[in-house]
Amino acid sequence: MIPAAGRTSLRRRLSTAAVATAALVAVGVPAILVTNSRLMQGLAVATDRVIEEQRIADRVGQAVVRQLVAASTGASEGDLEAREAFDEAGREVYDLIQEYLFRSLSPEERLQLETIKRQHQRLEVAAVEAAGRDSRGDPEAAAAARATMFRHASSLLEDLELFMRMRGEGLKRLREQERATFRVLFAGALAVAVALLVGSLLAGGFLYRRVSHPLARLAAASERLGAGDLAARIEVEHHDEIGVVAASFNRMAGSLSAARERLQAQNEELAGALEDLRSTQEELVQAEKMSALGRMTAGMAHELNNPLASVLAHAELLSRELEEEPAPDAANLREDFVRPLVEEATRARALVRNLLDFSRKADRDHAPAELGEALDIVVGLRDFAFRREGLDLVLEPLPETWVRADRNRLQEVFLNIVNNALEAMVDAGVTDGNLTIHGHVEDGRVRLCFDDEGPGFEAPERAFEPFHTTKPPGRGTGLGLTLVHRFVEEVGGSVEATAAPVGGARVVVELPVCPRPAPDAPVVRPGGRRVPPGAAGGAAGVAGAEGPAPVVLIVEDEPHLRRVQARLVRRLGAVPRVAVSGREAREILEGKEGDGVDAVVSDVRMADGDGIELFRWVESHRPELAERFLFVTGDVYGEETRELAAARPELFVQKPFEMDDYLERISAALGRGRPDGASTPAG
Amino acid sequence: MRQAPPSMHPRRLAVLGLLLGLPATSCEPPPRPVIGVSTSTRFVDAARLALSDAASGGALPVDTVLIPEGTNEAASAIRSAERLVAVPGMVAVVGHSNSAASLAASQIYGLHEVVQIAATSTATIYSRAGPWSFRLVPPDNVQARFLADQVGELLPEGGQVAVLYVNDDYGRGLLAEVTATLDPATHPTALVRPHTEEEGLRPEVVESTIASVAEAAPDLVLWLGRASVLNVYLVPLREALPDPPVLASDGVAAAPQMPNGDGRWNGVRYVDFVDVDATPALRDFARRYRERFGGVATGPDALNYDATALLLEAVAEGARTPDEVRAWLVSLGRERPAFEGITGPIAFDAEGDVERSHVLLRIGGGGP
Fold first, then answer.
1. What pTM was estimated for this model as a whole?
2. What is the ipTM score, two decimals?
C-alpha cells in the first residue's frame, strides 16, 4: 500500500496542467487581442488627433493671416473695425492654441507650444504698436513694428509647423511603438503557441508515460489475469493513482493466485474425497451385493445340493451297476445314468454361472444389453428362494428390448428389487404370493413393473433414501433401493416406488431403449464377456489336416479337470501336454518340448503360479503362443483378470464349460496366428 | 530579494526570481512622500518658512524639493515640473509663479498624477487644468467683477478706461472677463493695449505705449499685468498724464516689494486676496518673513506659505500618496473641516478653486 502522503496525485498534476493551459489561453489570448485592439484603437485615435491638430494648425495659420491682414489694413489705432477684426482673429488664435494645451504633449511639444504662444503674443503687441505708430504719424516706426509683427508671425508659423512636425513625430513614434508592440505581441503569441505546443507534447508524453502506457500494461496484465495467468503482475513505477491501481491489481492478482492455490488444494482434497467416496460407494455396492449374496447363500447351497446329490447318487449307482453282473448296456447307461448326470450337472453349472455373473464387479462402460437376459439371470438366481417360501417369481414374456447399460449393474438393480420384494413378503408372513415382473415399451422407453403382494411401502417417497429400511437389524444395508435409484438415473432412466394394483408394492423402472446392436458390434453376453465376432468358432476338429498333431499345453492344478481336459483335447486330434502349475508350464515351454507346444490352456488361479503371470511370460518369451493362449477359469475375476478379459475376451473360457464350447474355443485358438489361419489338423 | 539555492538552474533561477521579485516589489513600502515647491524665489522663501514652522514640532514626515524659478515663463515651469514628477515619492507640488506657468505645468502633473497647488494663479482657464490641479485663489471672472466694481467706484459715469494688459494667459483671460464685465456705456474703453513681460520693458515699446495712453487720455488706467512691468511704466505714465489713477489686478500684488523711493507707486490701487496686516497670524507671518528673508511679505507670499502648510498637514494626517493627498484636499470642507491657514479657511470647490474674497489695497499716500 502506497501511503497517501508519499504519492503524487496524478489527478492533481493533470488538473494543474489543465488549469495552467486554460489560464495561459484564457489570459494570453485575450491579453494579446485586447492589447492589439487597444493599440489599433490608440493608433486610430492618435491619427485622428493628428489630423484634427493639423486642422487646428491650419485654422491657426488662417487666423494669424487674418490678424496680419487686419493689422496691415488698419491704418490707425483708432480704426476700431480693423482692431475688432484683429482682436477676434487673435482670440481665435489664442483659443486654438489653448486647444493644444490640454492634450497629451511631450515636454518638448509643450515648450514648443509656449514658444508659439509667445510669438503670437509678440505678434499682437507689435501689431498694436504699429497701429499706434501710424496713429501718431510715425510711419517708419510703424513699418518697423509691422516688420517685427511679420517676423513674429513668420516665426509663429514656423514654430507651429515645427510643433506639427513634432506631433507627427509623436505619431510616427506611436506607430513605431505600435509596431514594436505588435512584434512583442506576435512574439508573445508565438511564445504562447510554442508553449502550448511544447506543453501539449510534454502533456502527451506525460500522459503516454504516466497514463496511457501504464493503462495498456494494466489492460494487458488484466487480460493475462483474465486468461488465467495469475502470475501476471505490473511493475509499479510511479506512486500516483495508476500506481495505486497497479499495486491494487498486484495485490488482487496475488490474492487470486493464493485463492486458486487454496482452491486447487481443496479441489485435490475434494477429488481425493470423491475418489474415496466412489471407492466407498463401490465397496458399499459390493458389500450390498455380497450382503444379498450372503442372504442368498443358504438357498443357493440348498439349490446346488439337489443336483449335486442327484449327481452323486447317479454316479455311485452307476459305479455299483458297473460292478454288478450283468452290466447294463450302453443304451440303459446313457438313459439311466449319463443323461441324468448331464442334466443335473448342467443345472448346477447354470446356478454357478448365474452366481458368477452376479458376483462380477460392474463395468463402467455402457454397452447395449438385452433386458430379458438380465431378468432371466435374476429370476434364475431367486426362483428357488421364492418357491422355498411358497411364493412365485413370475416373469411375464417381454419383447426383445435392448438398453444401453452395464449388464451386471442391470442385474444388480433387478436382484435388489426382487430381493426387496421377497424379504418384504416373507417378513410379512405372506405364504402364497407372487412377484410379477412385466413390462412394455412405449415412446422409446421400457417400463418394467415389479408388483409384489406384500404389505407395500410404508413411505414410498422415502423408499430410495440411503439407509432407509424397515427390515430388522442385520437384514440388509438399507442401500439396495438407493443404489437402484442411482444406477437407473445414471443411465437416463427413472425409478418409482408406489402401490401395486394387487395391493402390495410396485417398483416401476423406466429405461431408455436403444437399437439392437449390429451383428458385428461387441455385445455383453451373460457373464460380462465381450466376444468379438468370429471369436467363437465352431468345434471343427483340428485333425485331418496335414502335418503333426498340434500340442496343447494344459495347465490345471485340479487333477480331474486336468484329466478331462486332456481327454477333450485328444478328441480334437491334438496332443495334450499337462502341467500342474504355472511354474511347471513355464519350465516346459522353456525346455525342449516347449517349441512343440501350439496352444496353452491354463487355469487362472492355481496353487503354485498364477495363470496371468504365465500369460505375461508367454507374451514376452513366446509371443506367437500368446495368440493361442486360453484361460479356463471359474474366477470371479480379480482386477487384473477383469482388465485382461475386457481387453482380450477371446482368451477366456468359463468354468464350468460345455464340452462343445470348450472344443470350439481350443480349435479357434489353434487356428490363430497361423499363416493360413486354419486349424492344425489332428495326426 | 530572496536568494535561490546555488545549485538551481539559471533559467529556473530567473523564473523564480521573477516570481519572487514581483510580489517583493509590490510589497515594498511606498517611498517617503516628497513635496515639491517650484515658484518664484520669494514664494519659495515663504514655503521654507512653512517648512520651518512645521519642523519646529518635530521631524518632518515628508521630504521636500524646492526649485526657485529664475523667470516667470511657462517654459521654466514646464522644465521644473518635468524634474519634479521624476522624483520618487513626489506627491504634490506648490507651483508656479503665475497663471501661464501654472497652466502649462498643470498638464504634466495631471499626466503623472501629482497634485498641484497653484497658490496665486487666477486665470479662469486654470479651472480646466484637471483633477490634480488646485489653487488658493478664485478665478479671474470673480476678480473681473471686483475690478469692474472698483472702476465704478473710482470713476464717474462716462469716465474712460485705458486697459493695459500683459498678453499671456493671465492678462488675456482677465482682459476678456473685464471687458465683458465693464459696461461700455458708463465706462467706455479708450484704449486696450497689450504688452509682453519682456517686450514691454523695451524703451521704445514703453514710449509707444505711453504715447498711446496719452493720446487716449483715459480717466483711469486699468493695469492687468505684473508689478515688474508696471514699475517701468509708472514714471512715464505720470509724466504723460497728471496724477493718473491706476487700478491694477492681483498681478501687482508684489508691488509693496517694489522700490518706491521716487513715490511712483504711491496711489496705485491693486487687487489682492490677502492683507498681511489683517490678522495677527498674517502679521506674525509678515514679521517672521521679514526677519528671515528681508523685504516685505505680501499676500501671495502668505498664500504660498499656506499652500505648503496645507500639503504638510495632508501628509501629517497620513496622506502618503498623490491619491491620498488629493482625496485629503477634496475632503476639506466636506468630510473634514476646512484647513485653517494664515490666510483664512481653505476648502476647494469642484474645480479645485477656493472661494475667497478680494481686497483692494492702495500703496502709499498721495493720489486720488
1. 0.53
2. 0.85
